[in-house]
Amino acid sequence: MVDVCLNFRTSSKMFTITFIILVGISSIFVEAQRPDIVDEILPEVKQKNQIGYLNCTVVNKGSESVVQWSKVETVNGGNPILLSEDDKIVYQGNTGINEDSGLRKYDMQSRINGRRVTYMLVIRYLAEEDAGDYLCTIRIQGVQWPEWPKKIGKLTVQIAPQIQPSINSIYEKDIGSSLQLTCESHGNPYPNITWKREDGQELPMGGFQSRGATLNLTDIQRNDRGNYICVADNNVKPPDSFKVEVIVFFQPSCRPVQSTVGQAQNRRFNAKLECIVAGYPQPSMKWMKETENGKLIEIDDDDKYDITKQFSSQLQNDEFWYTLLVKNVQAKDYTNYHCVGTNKYGDGEITIALFETMECQGSNCPSPGGAGAGTQIQASVFTVLLFGLVSLLVL
Ligand SMILES: *[C@@H]1O[C@H](CO)[C@@H](O)[C@H](O)[C@H]1NC(C)=O
Ligand SMILES: *[C@@H]1O[C@H](CO)[C@@H](O)[C@H](O)[C@H]1NC(C)=O
Ligand SMILES: *[C@@H]1O[C@H](CO)[C@@H](O)[C@H](O)[C@H]1NC(C)=O
């Protein structure tokens, strides 16, 4: 009884071992027969006009199978375009051979490495439409299409940002109005857009940068005038930028450089009155003098007065610096002078008082002790000239 049992156990063990060996052999045999795609196809990320490479690595490829690369189309009902069969490119696209380089759009390079064969699809002159999925398939004779080994390779074509040039580049707005600036841009990946001021100043809504394609300016004020820049960046060089100029219309306003100016009378001294006028459009400007009876008379540029417009880097946008030189100050000149700026939005006005002093005021006064600074400068200029003349003669 024990013997029988033992025998039975031994034979069942034998059977199991034989079975495992058989299954093992047959599975190796099947493996060896069946071509397959090994490894994932690494996604390829390249910039426009560069070359993309997609590798499909295959094992056990026999003569009865063909490795195909095709491009998966999202348009056209999604029918893939067959690009290659084994080592041969079977499609060259619409572009064909590139005129400049003589190279083709597509190329196939295969490399054998032991049991593995890599079919590298080369895609040149990358354009936006080249981006997408590429399908590697092993077509096996006598096997139905759904059973063919397949893998997808993804190609990303990066595009540097481009801002649509259609947007306005100059806006003229009234005080208190609103304006929405938009910066439409394109690129892959979709760019980050930021708005900032060209002069680096703070934005009207606060902060030095605003993220997003739109910049809302509300209740526009004088100081909102200036250049605004939108920058589109997606880390694909170069970033793109666009400049918008915002002009703000406003009524003139005036401010004196000094609201009172003193000068001594009757000694051929001049008095300089200075006024800064702001406004857009640029205001016309006039100087007025108050007469004894309180009437205002406009001052002309003549023997008595010099009216000039000055330039200064200290001026802000839409500011203009005017001076009135009252020559040879006399008793009748001591009064108020009005600086008046006018544009179609209205007037701005301030007064500057000219008052009497005992001593000469200002930088053009003769220095105490006789010889004025002017005389000294003249003397030294004369010396230099004389020296130059002598050197010339000697040479
Ligand atoms: C494809 O294979 C080639 C050569 O084997 C290699 O140089 C390249 O880096 C591979 N490219 C990708 C995207 O895997
Ligand atoms: C700007 O204003 C528009 C319309 O008023 C609004 O739709 C948009 O969200 C605003 N954008 C920002 C960044 O505030
Ligand atoms: C946009 O900005 C964010 C935050 O700075 C960053 O993480 C992202 O990579 C940027 N996107 C692009 C396309 O550059």
UniProtKB/TrEMBL annotation:
Q: Name one GO cellular component term.
A: plasma membrane
Query: Which InterPro entries would you find in this protein's record?
Result: Ig-like_dom, Ig-like_dom_sf, Ig-like_fold, Ig_I-set, Ig_sub, Ig_sub2, Neural/epithelial_adhesion
Show which residues constitute the signal peptide.
Answer: none
**TM stretches of this protein:** none
Q: Which residues form the Ig-like domain?
A: 35-138, 161-245, 252-351
Q: Name one Pfam family in it.
A: I-set
| Main subcellular localisation | membrane
Q: Where in the cell is it found?
A: Cell membrane
The alphabetical list of record keywords is: Cell membrane, Disulfide bond, Glycoprotein, Immunoglobulin domain, Membrane, Repeat, Signal
Q: Does the keyword Membrane apply?
A: yes
Return the protein name.
Ig-like domain-containing protein
